């Protein structure tokens, strides 16, 4: 969270200190484990993302089941983070565990297709509407593959993204607009990439800026989520998708819709729910129930154009080029078996209905507290996902988020959540439901949010 200096910050800082001290006292095993981890991991844990928790250090997970995690110190958490979406099927979903164990016993990775892949390919086309698919090991990799294909078929270099986006470790997308200037998001290192040569960035929902940016005809693709979920949720304005599709078609720019998070909207993602027509559809994280996976689907037209450049050929014709996409483990038998279990038994219409009902319950509970206390905050809900933001209105763009974000309040709220047995994604205040989330889980959150409001009120913030 980008902490801002605003009135009340010193008071809030003191409250954060208090919550972190409480957290340290009540989580001695995790604290000791974190100290030990720092000796062997570059940033304390196996992945640097694991250090970002507001308690000051992460809890160490002992086990997880459904919507709950138990840590090393024996605390129970209702998990609304769900691995930042990778756990959206719930932890240890039975169908996935069964399928994965069965496949592990038959071989995890062979660089050969299995019969399950036939079912999965047909289901992906049926669900999401695009005819041809490729599997990868992560959503990042799927985005990289999609961008590569867009460049191959258009002969152009640039990737256009919206300020405040996140699409994984995709170099081209690490840009943002801050104070009217284009720079690196989160001051991330440019990594030797000349972003002025490979990226364009405009504000989300800004049709005129999009039109101007695509007019020169040097953009291979627009890469976007259907609505933004990684910078606080930024809803999409009426008519934006229509304009985006029309302008990208007119300028022969490939439209890549990244549904890695918005797949929480329903069985066919936001795309199916709202009739979007992406040229390339990307998803990942949740689709194999927590086993690493990503995928992208392409339209018939994209496939035809690609096949002209890299045709299907008999392997004896050695000139068949490799595409520079994915890796040895992509589409492995284990991942595919898990994907089948997810698509067949977990991410079903019935389970989505439960997840969405619980997200609505959470959003309504939070809105009741906000209204009763006349707080200038709001809640956005989209499908099985909800977000609380400390502004009266939803942002329309990344610029709005930058101008109004209350990093201090977010950190305090997150530190309190950690102490009260609630996990939310550490990057902003977003809640995701899984099929196992219950109304009781949601109500635990509503109670804690009520306590947060009392805490800041008593402190005079
Ligand atoms: N796309 C979107 C929209 C994401 O939110 C993320 C991860 N937060 C990614 C892609 C990258 O996913 P992964 O880290 O699994 O590669």
From TrEMBL:
State its cofactor: pyridoxal 5'-phosphate
Q: Does the keyword Ribonucleoprotein apply?
A: no
Q: Name one Pfam family in it.
A: Aminotran_3
Molecular functions per Gene Ontology? pyridoxal phosphate binding; transaminase activity
- Per the record, the domain of life is Bacteria
Keywords of this entry = Aminotransferase, Pyridoxal phosphate, Transferase
Entry similarity comment: Belongs to the class-III pyridoxal-phosphate-dependent aminotransferase family.
Query: PANTHER family given for it?
Result: GLUTAMATE-1-SEMIALDEHYDE 2,1-AMINOMUTASE (PTHR43713), GLUTAMATE-1-SEMIALDEHYDE 2,1-AMINOMUTASE 1, CHLOROPLASTIC-RELATED (PTHR43713:SF3)
Protein name per UniProt: Aminotransferase class III-fold pyridoxal phosphate-dependent enzyme
